[in-house]
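Practice problem 4.
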């Protein structure tokens, strides 16, 4: 079975072709391409929906040709076409979904509408293909949630952020500090060799299963002018801290540790409460080496197995969408081409 998938939920245009073999030998990724738009959005400090949408239109046809060439297959050999149908930016989602639907109709093959969050959620299992029950955390730029995964399609929400996502906090604090976009990798880079205990930053909602990161961002906002030596405010405080590399290192390390502490503590508590054997982590923020290391250590200490998505699968890509589509197709699921994209699509329907 061969699946072609598109991912255009935000600012990354991605196309992948995945071929499933028998269940025991897993699947083979024939091609996976991601066209990043970071340079286009960097100057605005975030994603501009219209710009993202136009770029998807420009990049998608080129990437489709490229994955077809790399995979050395003809479109006639594709058994199903999939696309992310939400959550995400409406004007971005509709590009990938329209292309996948058009191809499915044109070639007379099934169409699969895939939830972006389910793509992340299943990505730690990409290389072995078997979904085992687990407590998962998805930590990305748009989402932070913990989920009890009982099996494919059987998910229970444990907790989620009540304000900013963890990645959003990284991006906003990086902007305050005058660092580039996306902020996560920038803060991680500066945090290396920093003193994570130097600044006492808040760990919000310690007794809740939900998360909150907006207070942490605000704490950095108010701390910054005080520590740079004079009462300045952004953007001049960013220039001030840039001139003091040791301070910048320690602030980045302290901020990163505040996020890691909360994520590790709440994930372990959820795994203990729900009595699972396995903990998984996915989404862009799970690229963070310190987070992976500390969660792995905590799992080892508390007797849980730990599985993280491989770093290249953590940030947005179409391979994870193709993988989710393949598992769904194998279990007999296909979508109606009349199904609309849904910018607010939930992973676990509420109520
Ligand atoms: O999953 P993703 O590519 O897109 C969404 O679905 O949101 O995640 C992007 C987010 C950004 O906020 C980015 O700053 C963050 O992931 N990120 C990181 C790292 N790499 C990416 N955060 C912390 N440390 C990193 N190394
Ligand atoms: Zn994502």
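Answer key:
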């Amino acid at each position: 079975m061969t699946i072609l998938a598109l991912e255009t939920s935000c600012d990354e245009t991605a196309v992948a072709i995945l071929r499933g073999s028998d269940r025991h030998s897993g699947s083979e990724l024939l091609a996976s391409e991601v066209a990043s738009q970071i340079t286009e959005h960097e100057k605005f400090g975030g994603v501009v929906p219209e710009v993202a949408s136009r770029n998807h239109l420009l990049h998608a046809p080129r990437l489709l040709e490229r994955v077809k060439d790399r995979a050395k297959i003809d479109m006639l050999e594709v058994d199903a076409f999939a696309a992310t149908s939400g959550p995400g930016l409406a004007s971005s989602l509709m590009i990938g979904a329209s292309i996948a639907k058009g191809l499915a109709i044109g070639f007379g093959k099934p169409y699969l509408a895939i939830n972006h969050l389910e793509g992340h959620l299943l990505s730690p299992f990409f290389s072995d293909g078997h979904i085992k029950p687990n407590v998962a955390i998805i930590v990305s730029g748009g989402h932070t949630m913990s989920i009890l995964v009982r099996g494919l399609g059987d998910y229970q929400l444990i907790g989620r952020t009540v304000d900013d996502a963890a990645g959003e906090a990284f991006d906003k604090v990086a902007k305050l500090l005058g660092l580039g976009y996306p902020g996560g990798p920038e803060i991680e880079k500066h945090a290396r060799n920093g003193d994570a205990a130097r600044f006492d930053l808040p760990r919000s909602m310690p007794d809740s299963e939900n998360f909150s990161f907006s207070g942490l961002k605000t704490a950095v906002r108010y701390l910054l002018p005080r520590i740079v030596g004079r009462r300045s405010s952004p953007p001049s405080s960013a220039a001030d801290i840039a001139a003091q590399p040791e301070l910048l290192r320690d602030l980045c390390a302290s901020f990163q540790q505040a996020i890691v502490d909360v994520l590790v503590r709440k994930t372990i508590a959820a795994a203990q409460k729900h009595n699972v054997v396995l903990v998984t982590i996915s989404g862009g923020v799970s690229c963070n080496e310190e987070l992976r290391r500390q969660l792995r250590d905590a799992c080892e200490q508390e007797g849980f197995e730990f599985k993280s998505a491989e770093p290249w699968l953590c940030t947005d890509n179409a391979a994870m969408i193709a993988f989710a589509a393949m598992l769904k197709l194998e279990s007999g699921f296909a979508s109606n081409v009349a199904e609309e994209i849904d910018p607010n699509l939930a992973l676990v329907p509420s109520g």
